[in-house]
Structures are given as C-alpha cells and as structure tokens.
Please model this.
Amino acid sequence: MEGNELRAYLDALLDAARFRDYCPNGLQVEGRAEIRRIVCGVSASQALIDAAAASGADAILVHHGWFWKSEDGRVTGHRRRRMAALLAHDINLFAYHLPLDAHAEFGNNAQLAQRLGWTVTGRFAEQDIGFLGTPAAAITAGALAAGIETTLGRKPLLVGDAGRPVARVAWCSGGAQGYFEQALAAGADVFVSGEISENTVHLARETGVPYIAAGHHATERYGVMALGAHLKERFGLDCEYIEVDNPV
Model:
C-alpha cells in the first residue's frame, strides 16, 4: 500500500481535521513510499523505533507521536537519536492523538468500554472526547475498580467511597483529570481516567464521586491495537502491536 494512500485513509477514518490538538495528527515523518508492515504502539519512543526497525517495519503507528506544542522544537539529544534511527531505516511515523481517543469504534475510550463491558450512552467534555455509559450490571465503585485491574493488568488508584453504587460511568483515557468537573456535571457516579492530580483527590472526596486512575499507558493501548487489526483485515497489511512497558 502506498504511504500517501494510507495517510489519506487514516485521516478520513479518524476525522483528523476536525480536532484542535496539541500535536500534528497523521503522517509526522515520511519514510519509504510502499508500506507492507506496520508496527503499532502507544508512544513513539526509542524502544518502539528500535523494535520496529529490527522487525523490518515500513511504518510505525502510534497514539503519542512527536512535535508537541509545549516541547522544545530543536532536534537534539534524545530527539536527534530517535529521528536518526527512524530516518536511517526509512520508516514512516503516523500518529493520531485526540482522533484516536474519540473514535466511536477504534478509539481508546470505545475500546475500553468494549473490554470492560460498558454500554456507551453519550459523550461529554471538549470535542466529545469523554464517554458516558452504564456498567453491565449493578456494581459498586470498588468492584468496578477490581474489574479494571483484571482487564488492564494494572492496579488502579481508587479515591473516594468504594461502596458507592455505580449506575452511570464517565471515562476518558490518558491524562484527562481536567475533565472531572465536566463528568460531575454530566451526572457521573464515578469517573475513570488514566492519571490523577493532587487537586483531583480533594474534588473526589468533597463531591462524593469516586475517581479511578487506571494508568495513562494502560488505558491507551487498545485504540491503536484495534486500528492495526482493522488495517490488517481491510488491506491485508502485516500489523503487529508491540508493548513497551510503562508503569504510568
């Protein structure tokens, strides 16, 4: 498959142009023209690049790419080493941030719901990034956290009343603790995200709505996995997800 054809397909599928984001979405670094093998991962780290190069990948597809607005744009140090490795092996880098959080089928939040047995009933927060839904059966916040631990393979941090009954879940993968108040306004009985901040603890305690921090990396693995599986099925591309361990 031609790289430009893949770029156009992914941009359209994920509606990338719709999002106001903190980084460029789509093809971030151009490599060889023809793509047969894609390595998928959460972040475009040195470890992922090295693994992709060793496996003969033509492209890397990630959720966390490069060129973030808040970063120093100079290509020095670790940025130079990453870029040099990518260019030396002529590998394309595709990255989709908010578009891969929000997609109704292949997005991180949709995939979390699928794995945890939650039914999606609505959206909330900026650009409809956050999801609302219901658990499969009557459950408490503590039991919900236990199910998350089993599914994600990582013990989450639960702040608040573990015994609170949960009829409505709000969730947003990654570093979405800033959406907690919007989740409260949407009527959530619990909010699940990847990260937590100091002030989030007080908000959970004072409102009585538990907050579950399930891990930034742990909550954002499944979107790129699902997208890779879709590309394999639709186009016959060799797509492999490579896990680079991250405890955060």
User: Anything to note?
Assistant: The mean pLDDT is 98. The longest strand covers residues 37-43.
